[in-house]
Design brief:
Elements: E1 2-4, E2 7-9, H1 20-24, H2 28-40, E3 53-54, H3 61-77
Antiparallel strand pairs: 1-2, 2-3
Helix pairs in contact: 2-3
Length: 78
């Protein structure tokens, strides 16, 4: 997970993502599987691994907890 402030992106790679070249070499098929697994759990993410997620004041503790639990379930499926 790469993060700056309230923005973050998940990459599936065996190496640290430091630049766009690293990001391009991440496992985009795995991200697509992760995206679908999260969607099945009711969490809609950016469909591309190259788009970032944003946390805002609209995200309640309950929404964040739901997202964390969905994330755990999605990773287990992968």
């Amino acid at each position: 997970i790469n993060r700056v402030g309230s923005m973050m992106t998940v990459f599936f790679a065996k190496h640290e993502i430091k630049n766009f070249e690293d990001a391009k070499n991440s496992d985009q098929k795995k991200y697509a599987q992760y995206f679908r697994a999260m969607l099945n759990e009711g969490v809609y993410l950016a469909p591309s691994a190259f788009e970032c997620w944003f946390i805002s004041t609209e995200h309640t503790e309950a929404i964040i907890e739901k997202t964390i639990e969905a994330h755990k379930k999605a990773l287990k499926q992968l």
